[in-house]
Design a protein that fits this description.
Radius of gyration: 29 Å
Number of domains: 3
Largest sheet: 6 strands, parallel
Number of strands: 20
Shape: globular
Oligomer: single chain
Mean pLDDT: 94
Strand content: 15-25%
CATH class of the largest domain: Alpha Beta
Low-confidence stretches: none
Distance between the termini: 49 Å
CATH architecture of the largest domain: 3-Layer(aba) Sandwich
Strand order of the largest sheet: 9-8-7-10-11-12
Number of helices: 19
Helix content: 40-55%
CATH topology of the largest domain: Rossmann fold
Length: 610
Amino acid sequence: MRLLQEMLLGMGGMRLIRTLGLTPHIYHMNEGHSAFMVIERLQECMSMGMSYAEATARVRSNSVFTTHTPVPAGNEAFSLDLMGRYFGGIASNLGLSWPEFVQLGQMEGGNSQAFEMTVLALRLSSRANGVSRLHGEVSRHMWNKLWKSLPLAETPINYVTNGVHTPSYVGMHMHEILNQHLGPDWLQAKHDSPIWDKVDAIPDDVYWSARMTQKEDLLDALRARIPAFAQKFQLSRAQRKSMESLLKPGTLLIGFARRFAPYKRATLLFADPDRLARILNDPQRPVCLIFAGKSHPADEAGINLIQEVLRMSRDERFLGKIFFMEDYSLAVSRLLSQGCDVWLNTPRRPHEASGTSGMKLPVNGGINLSISDGWWCEGYNRQNGWTIGPVVSTELPSGAQNDYDDAESLYTLLENAVLPLYFDINDAGLPANWIAMSKRSLKSLTAMYSSNRMLDDYIRQAYLPCARRRGMLAENDWALCRDLAAWQRDLPVRFGTVKMEEIIISGADGNTMTCGEPVNIRLHMHLGQMRPEEILVQLVIGRAYASGNFRDSPEVLRLEPRPADHGDNGMNYSATYIPTRNGHYRYGIRATPVHKGLDSPLETGLVLWG
């Protein structure tokens, strides 16, 4: 059934687009579920007279792929037997043997008995990305074997961090004061616009009044649910009164609403119930935890997590202090985003590809309290919220993440940072320092994590470059596309005759370079059956970890060619590199085939390293 659904989405979706008379310049596959789109496009191009190689070049040129899943098990794969039932004829239509077709969905070292949708999408896309900076790094680790000749840092999977549609989530009262103080164009303002500086000028009492009005809507919704809860669990009148007593504007509301997948660790707060009870039962600092969300009907572990939250909400120590809002919906999501003071996020790093729920809080004056994962690795600036546990950016965790260490960090933050800041009231009856952090959160995160910024990133990084390349290939009835396909036909054989014969590096003392002093690189290479204009030679160099992986994207420096003195189809190449930073470096010299129809010289997958 799942395979049929994805055929309907990918292949049927393409036919629907054609039936509607639409002719897009760019095709964007959002996760592997739609990847059969490229199979349909290949068939379509070949039905118009293109060869398989020409169709592949055309389809790749303007296909974009976004992966959302940071764990191998989350990437869809189908058995070869099942694929054979539906795609045997399609392989024949493409002029491919069955093993050749299967190779489109397989990666070296992967499952040889499965066809992987993410592999198919990556093979036939010109641009690919994860959905946060950290997720881009995770994705490069996961799929690097598809580009086995490239260092990890150069694996061509970028990132575009997700964003939320701000108008859908900003509360009416916050929207009104932002319109009044920032002007009507604030929703379109970019993250670096001076408009955001005007947030500081909003009077604290006005700002706080809007926050409290929105919070009251959430409190009303919680109060309305108490009778049904009391009846279901046969609570006494006194217990019901006790539940209602905390639902007042001065109570700190901490929200947690999302899919109840085990890696999101919804019950991390319950690691030490006694300590949690001490935090929640301080009469001078009233706190309520509000949970909401659903699990997949077949996810027994997720269902158990919801049951654990419900069990804790009925515990005498937590009655009226832990709420679970049933029937999670977009309306409930908005209510929580607009009313919660703090948004809690506790995933097991790096399993949160991006996350978006916490992005909805800042525009409503809420503050994030999160593990350093997904978007929060980029969003946190040490002044606009709190990070639970270690603060990371793009480096992956070096060992197993300890739930109890994270719980300890969470409790400590609540006790020593979050609650003291919220309940620090000035002479005007306002939590001035809390409001200041809330404003910093709004200023630094609202525009940066909006769908406006996200779409702008996709346009600049993927759509425009792909559209330009597609236009170039399409000129003169796809002449360049056909030329590229013909050039690639015997390329592996011809490129296999290239040999690097001598590399000389001068200016370095043994294994040591000196900062600021030039290092000269010279190479003599025999081109074999390749022409000089078909070869690009580069120095790839950058600071590296002890493991040998580059710390960041390496520097890539072109070596300039000149004919060798002897006529053996040899060429000399040279460049000068000046190191500017201390540390351990890794480097290599590589040759790749080039053609003006390629999106990147690395696209062929053919690389000779020296």
